[in-house]
Design brief:
The protein is α/β, with parallel strands linked by helices. The chain contains seven helices and ten strands.
């Protein structure tokens, strides 16, 4: 599903975020990217989502080398991908149903289908019945669930998340991780960047450990 082959990433300010990183994540696998702040976790997710491009090396998603995807092809590429952010990135002046529907509206899905899929996504994250609530009327954990519903409403094959539990207390964080695990259990490939090793241990999925832009030793740990 995902393969990094000797990937380097250097930003315009000269910072080398990744240096010769190679790994493979299988189709339907749940994997954690972990390591200290600045280790390169977020850069890997940005390369997967084509928010950034590698300086050197190759990134494959499915059988596709992302180097061959032109800018005009990026929106179509991202339709197979769900992205969850730490800070939710919700539109506070819209009800949560509109927030969740946004990817489908952009994709041109018919309204009747949008309404059906939004309700299904909210049901999956335990928020059915709160469609007309505004984000600021919800708790922090509920807002994160809205972000997850928006990420999965398009039925992606791949779900990525950058520190999705960073602002939550331990119990809420574990609830959110179990929610990701449920999506993985039905075949979605899940990649989560987090520094919370204790939380990873409770979920028990594979991890890829990074340090200073390189794979740490051991590079991959299977609990």
């Amino acid at each position: 599903m995902i393969r990094f082959d000797q990937v380097h990433k250097r930003y315009a300010n000269g910072r080398e975020a990744l240096a010769g990183v190679s790994f493979t994540i299988g189709d339907g696998e749940m994997t954690f990217l972990t390591g200290h702040s600045g280790a390169g976790k977020s850069s890997i997710l940005k390369l997967i989502a084509l928010i950034e491009r590698p300086t050197r090396g190759q990134v494959f998603i499915g059988s596709q080398n992302t180097a061959g995807i032109k800018p005009r092809g990026i929106p179509q590429f991202r339709r197979q991908l769900g992205v969850v952010f730490q800070d939710h990135k919700l539109l506070h002046d819209r009800p949560i149903s509109d927030n969740v529907a946004l990817p489908l509206i952009i994709a041109g899905v018919p309204k009747r289908e949008i309404d059906k899929r939004v309700r299904a996504a909210l049901d999956q994250v335990g928020l059915l019945g709160k469609e007309r609530s505004r984000p600021l009327e919800l708790s922090t954990g509920e807002q994160q669930r809205v972000g997850i519903a928006r990420a999965v409403v398009g039925k992606p094959r791949l779900l990525i998340a950058d520190e999705p539990t960073g602002n939550l207390d331990p119990d809420l964080a574990l609830d959110i991780m179990r929610l990701f695990k449920r999506f993985n259990d039905v075949g979605v490939t899940v990649v989560i960047a987090t520094h919370d090793v204790h939380l990873i241990d409770q979920i028990g999925a594979r991890r890829i450990v990074l340090g200073d832009g390189r794979l740490a030793a051991p590079a991959v740990v299977n609990p």
